[in-house]
Structures are given as structure tokens and as C-alpha cells.
Amino acid sequence: MLHAVAAYYKVFKLLDSALGERGPWVLGHSLSLGDINLMPFVARLEFLGLLEVFTMDRPAVREWWEMAREWPSYIAGIVEPMTKHEREEMITHGPTIRRDIEDLISQVESIAVEAKH
User: Whole-model pTM?
Assistant: First the structure.
């Protein structure tokens, strides 16, 4: 689980940096396959109530996600096909692991600090 959380942590860190340098989309001023490929993963974290854990200190990612969520193909391809039951399951179970995810992120950050020294 630590490796999975570390991977998400790294992706969001890199994404925030890229968006800050090139934004508002991953590769610049136009939506690209890079954005489209990230959307399902980010959406799942949002549906689980866990996205804020990874984006709290990443304003560029939060702005990007606001734009991405409004994209018609995102709505048609990810949001609309989801059943009420699927949404309820994620809303119910996602928050139960939030504290564990936050603890793992703290571990990832500690490891990153130790690696720098």
C-alpha cells in the first residue's frame, strides 16, 4: 500500500509542477491525452473522498481538476455511466481509509526528506 500511495503522491507532485510551468493543461494550453489519461484515476480518488489528501497543497492540480470535471467527454464517459450503487459504495468506504492514506503520505514525505540528507 505504501508503494501505491507513494506513486500517487509522486504523480500529483509532478502534475502540480508541470501545470504550474505549462498549464492550464498537462502539456500547455490545450487538453491532451495526458489529461485524459489522468482523469479516471483522479476521478476515483474524488469519488472515494480521498482526492483532497493528495491535492491539499497543490493549487494547480485543483484548478486543473475543476476544468477537467467540466469537460463533456469526462462527464459522458466517467460520471454518467456510474451507477448509484457504485457511487454509494465509494462514498461509504473511501472515508474509512482516509486516515490510513494520510499516515502513508506522511511516511512518504519522511522518506523523501531523509533521502535528501
Answer: 0.89
Which regions in the chain score pLDDT beneath 70?
Answer: none
Residue-averaged pLDDT of the chain:
94
Cα 26 from chain centre = 13
Lookup: cell for 12: 500529483
> Which residues lie closer than 8 Å to 104 by C-beta, 6 or more apart?
1, 2, 5, 6
Distance CA 78, CA 7 (A): 22
Q: How many CA atoms lie within 13 A of 82 on its CB side?
A: 18
Q: Please determine, looking at this structure, whether the domain spanning 2-116 carries the CATH number 1.10.3470.
A: no
CB 56 within 8 A of CB 12: no
Q: What residue ranges do the domains of the chain occupy?
A: 2-116
